[in-house]
User: What shape does this take?
Amino acid sequence: MAEFWHISTDVIVIGSGAAGLSAAIEARQAGAAVMVFEKMPVIGGNTRISDGGLSAPGNFMQKRLGITDSPRMFYDDIMRAGLGLNHPELVKIFTQNASDAIDWTRQLGVQYQDRVDKFGGHCAARCVTIQNNAGRDIIKAQIRRLDQMQVSVHTRHALEDLITDDSGTVIGVRIRSRSRDSGPDLSSGPDQDSGPAADANQTMVQHIRARRAVVLATGGFGSDVAFRSCQNPRLDTTILTTNHKGATAEGLVAALHIHAMPVHLSWIQLGPWGCADEAGYGKGSRFASYSIFPTGILVNPATGNRIVNEWADRRQRSDAMLATGHVCAGIVDAKGAQKDPDSLAHCLKTQKTRQFDSLTRLAEAWQMPSDALEKTVSEYNHLVRTGKKDPFGKLPHKNAGPIDSPPFYAMGLWPKVHYTPGGLQINENAQVIDLNHRPIGHLFAAGEVTGGIHGAGRLGGCALPECIVFGRIAGQQAAI
Ligand SMILES: Cc1cc2nc3c(=O)[nH]c(=O)nc-3n(C[C@H](O)[C@H](O)[C@H](O)COP(=O)(O)OP(=O)(O)OC[C@H]3O[C@@H](n4cnc5c(N)ncnc54)[C@H](O)[C@@H]3O)c2cc1C
Assistant: This one.
């Protein structure tokens, strides 16, 4: 067996997003030798491109502003958004430790803006945001810490398989590296048992032994069209994604191969703010979130009518758009567009948003029945002005005024796959559970590769703190 292994270490972490790097820091802190493997050329996964919003009750900004909140209130919000499918014991751990997770990032050097926001589905303002809305600052701070601890992240190294012994306990991993230049020199490591074997495709396959444990932190599968459309056939190539390219399911599948229990895989979250004329998350999505949805309306161009409460949760808005069968029009006036002038300027320049002198011109350009659109807008304005009941339930809304100040702006909106709440079942210690409801020996998981915490849908700002809470637990437990 000794000849089988190319190298060994105490704890192997797969994936370099917030969950994986949190686990690596904690495992090293507990005295374990740690190696982190990342299949992409860049570190950070979806965490790196995220907006950096973290929700937690009792966080430092709430304390500063005297906002009343509690883990119990947060728990209730999460269970409601998840339609009660959430695994309660995991939600409890998350809600009780989310604020500590934010403090931990501050200790690592992450800086936050002087604001706290209330997003849809939350009963309190509890989301703090990293400077420049940049999730990558978490990654930078974690990498700084890992450098101090002399732990490296080996990029272009993809997990292919988890290796188990006869009892099913995980004892190592099979890694394929694409370029020796970018990765560790595994042939010269102090723990080296034998040299790696090159294959015909100039990639290297290495067997790496984990003396203590493996932590799987490979993120979600939003970019994996084959896997996600198998779970939900609507999510084929006609639906784009906000995720990075590497958000694919191999890590999850490696665990399924050794009989890990999958949960909630078909509950895939779509972002209703997806700009139809832009790849990825982009400025269009930001303009839709900060301007169109709070201050404007979402219209089916075939009818000129509103289709949904523009401030409903992500699932309801996305479902309403998919039901129309085509790109919908997000419409806002000059006043509303000023909620996010930077994104507006960018979107006008790149023609993701178009400007019109009148609603009639807008309707013509969209080949929409003009009378119907005028009627829709005038009914909406009447509701805003009179405070009468909105049949869709959005109004009254504190940011919504009448849509009556030209010019008017319209953007094509179509949902994008944003988040995959389903994944591997874990327990309170972040151990991966098997199909017989028992922990798989020496295998831990954290972050978007896991499932159960958010149930049917995740609230805003809840993924990053959850990755940190369970990443830290996984690292501490893996090091034992
Ligand atoms: C545009 C965008 C904005 C977002 N904004 C927010 C926000 O403001 N607040 C919030 O809470 N959440 C937000 N989210 C969600 C959040 O960013 C993610 O859920 C979270 O970052 C996932 O972290 P992770 O560590 O689990 O996975 P990731 O950060 O995705 O990291 C996983 C890593 O594993 C690697 N990997 C995958 N398979 C393998 C393999 N086989 N071998 C080796 N490596 C592998 C991947 O390449 C990746 O680098 C956002 C998501 C997106 C896409």
